[in-house]
Specification:
Elements: E1 3-8, H1 13-27, H2 36-41, E2 46-52, E3 55-66, E4 69-77, H3 86-100, E5 105-111, H4 115-120, E6 124-132, E7 135-143
Parallel strand pairs: 4-5
Antiparallel strand pairs: 1-2, 2-3, 3-4, 5-7, 6-7
Amino acid sequence: MALCIREIAHGSDEYAETVELRRRWLREPLGLCFTDQELAADAHSRHLAAYLADELVGCVVITPIDARTMRMRQLIVRPDRQKQGVGKALIERAETIAREAGCNQMVLHARAAAIGLYQRLGYHGVGEPFIEVTIPHQAMEKAIPAA
């Protein structure tokens, strides 16, 4: 099965599926839920979804910070599809979109368990670890070279 990464529209049925995936695997285990304000703010972001045979297996959100910087957040790959290149493919597509938008830097807050993935893809830590949404995170960044 070929992996397909698609940009999806905020408010679409596909977007609703990604919100459910994010809720189930990122928020619910921490006893958290999305607020209406958080979901409304998603309208200012770009949303990527990963599909295997038309089945949603992962997603990521990217948000412009300024003219040269994008923030990647809420990267999730279904647990049964992890370690199969889905996360890497989502990150690489997010970087391509950032580059095409004229950005030269991607920033993110990585959960401790995901730091290794980001390091393998060229990201490096910035500052000290911190607590966000009740768990340890590390600010990370990567220069995005022009095409």
